[in-house]
Amino acid sequence: MSSHKASAVAQGSGAPASNRETDTLELAELGPLLEEKGKEGLPTPPPKLKKSKPEEEEEVRVLTLPLQAHHAMEKMEEFVYKVWEGRWRVIPYDVLPDWLKDNDYLLHGHRPPMPSFRACFKSIFRIHTETGNIWTHLLGFVLFLCLGILTVLRPNMYFMAPLFSWFFHTVYCHSEKVSRTFSKLDCSGIALLIMGSFVPWLYYSFYCSPQPRLIYLTVVCVLGTSAIIVAQWDWFATPKHRQTRAGVFLGLGLSGVVPTMHFIIAEDFVKAITMGQMGWFSLMAVMYITGAGLYAARIPERFFPGKFDIWFQSHQIFHVLVVAAAFIHFYGVSNLQEFRYGLEGGCTDDSLL
Length: 353
Fold this sequence. Notes:
Belongs to the ADIPOR family. One of its GO terms (cellular component) is plasma membrane. 67% of the residues lie in helices and 0% in strands. It has helices spanning 2-29, 32-39, 53-84, 117-122, 131-150, 160-171, 176-205, 210-231, 242-254, 257-266, 269-274, 278-297, 314-342.
């Protein structure tokens, strides 16, 4: 009898302990706010009012979502403040968002997304993967602008392409929308540069042949305008179509082979090279083609990933060659123009060319 009573007493004393453990687990699941209420001695709700598991999870989620949103906003404000003050750090390629990934052979030194134009322009004076691209075309723009001022009467549209390219490389890390917009502007500037290089050369080379001059100028303008239209498509500026971009601009440049051969055959090879400045224009073409080829193939960083992240990458070499070729073209067109103006606009002595 005594043993039976002891067992009954043990069972009776064990039941409240089990209930207390169950209550503690329920309070823990409902979060710290409800746990505090439980500690104050509030009565445990009856079984019929007990919430199901999905309802408990929903209540906890409702309690935590505002806190998560608040913390996310604080982090965003802190990041924007650091970017605005210029206290950002360069980041590796693999953590860039997809719209900022362009060359996977440049492993380190990239700018993070910076949703501030002020921060983008202040980054001109920081060292990162775009520093060389920015300054090569910024200096090219300033030099061509000075040339345009010094030679007002001579055709000079060379500063447009460096200006557009400088804007693109400066602000393309702002946001995906800004990056796409200025990328289209950059590609349009390249097409304008090629088209603008042909126009004065065709005009002065076929100065006394109006019909071929009109045909060639029309073809070049149509091709250049077509390239600008194609550059407005979103897919055109993606890394996947890098070779397509290079091919479009290379094809636009090679369209000058036909008028070049016409000019050499119609005149004389030696006179075309000397008085017709074909030597300078051929050098210009070689530099354009070389730069486009290096850009499309991503040489040299393709063979040494991570070694040319900051300096001497393919895009920078392309920029330098383009600016140098534009200077050579300007020099050749200036000499050709002086030759034509020396004849006082007449073609009676055109046998000299």
